[in-house]
Amino acid sequence: xxxxxxxxxxxxxxxxxxxxxxxxxxxxxxxxxxxxxxxxxxxxxxxxxxxxxxxxxxxxxxxxxxxxxxxxxxxxxxxxxxxxxxxxxxxxxxxxxxxxxxxxxxxxxxxxxxxxxxxxxxxxxxxxxxxxxxxxxxxxxxxxxxxx
Length: 148
What we know:
Layout lengths: L17 E4 L9 E4 L9 E4 L9 E5 L5 E2 L4 E4 L5 E4 L2 E2 L9 E4 L9 E4 L2 E4 L9 E4 L9 E4 L1
Antiparallel strand pairs: 1-2, 2-3, 3-4, 4-5, 6-7, 8-9, 9-10, 10-11, 11-12, 12-13
């Protein structure tokens, strides 16, 4: 965890918007953490910035604390149809891209999907949803679980 004053202009607009640090342990302060949505928590990691501020690699936090390299996630709908995308998708078919698929083990296949006050979990890593969790009182903790 880092807390520091902004000291890097990652988007080259003349205003500091990132924290420079040696994230990858190469001995150089050429990496940066940025907060693109303004919530006070870094959500983009830029590795090995060159002299022009372009990163060799960049990663984003998909909201779960998992840093991803922007690769698409494969996931199965409840009907068994495979899709690719994410981290935000329309899992529940309501026409809104506001459900979040999560690939916690980074194998390219979603392990969880968060849909409003529900979550679907693939507990055995076979690509199919096994468990549905529900948070009926919206306190952030599951109140019920059911097998699918």
